[in-house]
Design goal:
The chain has six helices and twelve strands. It has helices at about 15-20, 30-50, 85-95, 145-150, 170-180, 210-215; strands at about 1-5, 55-60, 65-70, 75-80, 100-110, 115-125, 130-135, 140, 160-170, 185-190, 195, 200. The protein is globular and about 65 Å long.
């Protein structure tokens, strides 16, 4: 798997990530969602460089110009609910993709920190021989992405898979590397060193879903 950690270099991307992490700026949910959306746009731009392109002729008011445009069939799948702002950022750059949505959540066992990933909703077009983009802002253990990928595979086998995330853990990145097909690419804005006992990324940013849309019961 190719890992593209865009946070390693200097760019405005790091400004958006720093604001996502900031405990004071996090209080503005609209800004939090917007920063995730903008990160999705940046990651999408970089991802677009790996796609297949074809040349088309465009008629302007003054003549004709040949332009290279992407021609892959793409399915964009986000994991509800935290994935919605990131999904929108990717969708801003890939106007004509098909969309899929999946509900996957952690179901804890009794009162301990162990959990299973439960999928109880999935809507998707065929992904057969298409480019699949999986969107999840937090790549903690990697288990959610694995379960999501296994669930969506009943709709076909993609010719290539891209994972788009905001922040991941080293453990999660390694897990995805070991469990996803070799033709998978990961696009991520930052990678942190640790997971705590509850499998949250440290220092991370907290619960992305709650920060974007409000606390849940």
């Amino acid at each position: 798997m190719n890992v593209h950690n865009l946070g390693i270099g200097n760019s405005v991307l790091n400004q958006f990530v720093s604001e996502l992490r900031d405990i004071e700026i996090q209080k503005d949910a609209m800004r939090f969602r917007k920063n995730i959306e903008r990160i999705g746009e940046i990651l999408s731009y970089e991802l677009s460089k790996t796609l297949n392109y074809t040349t088309k002729k465009v008629t302007t008011p003054l003549g004709i110009k040949e332009v290279s445009v992407p021609d892959d069939k793409i399915v964009l799948c986000s994991i509800l609910r935290a994935g919605l702002p990131l999904h929108q950022g990717v969708l801003n750059y890939f106007d004509h993709v098909e969309n899929a949505f999946i509900s996957a959540y952690r179901k804890h066992q009794d009162d301990n920190d162990d959990f299973d990933i439960v999928v109880n909703y999935l809507a998707s077009p065929s992904i057969q021989d298409k480019i699949l983009i999986l969107v999840d802002p937090m790549l903690a253990t990697g288990n959610t992405l694995e379960v999501t990928f296994e669930a969506i595979k009943k709709y076909g086998t993609p010719k290539q898979t891209h994972i788009v995330s905001v922040i991941g853990s080293e453990q999660g990145v390694a897990y995805v590397d070991n469990t996803f097909p070799p033709n998978t690419q990961l696009w991520i804005a930052a990678v942190d060193e640790q997971l705590n006992s509850k499998s949250y990324i440290v220092p991370g940013l907290g619960d992305a879903g709650d920060l974007a849309f409000g606390s849940k019961l």
